[in-house]
Amino acid sequence: MGLTLSYIAGGVSVVCWIIVLIRMFKESALKGIIGLICGIYAFIWGWMNSGSGLKNVMLLWTLAIVLGFIGGAIGGFSMIPRP
Fold it and tell me: Which end of the chain has a smaller Cβ tally under 10 Å, C or N?
């Protein structure tokens, strides 16, 4: 259950990252390349430019990251052997 949630959240994160990358390449090729190499730069850039129509994408990306951590924790704790 938890790992499935984590996998789905990872897929959503990749889709949101690609959407932000497209916007970055439209603004500048250098920003797009930096965002391609460093995902956290794309995440921060997306929030800094969320007023230009990226707000829903960034909210979804942030929610996906949080749900990924929660799913990973649930999956990890479910592996602990019970006495």
Answer: C
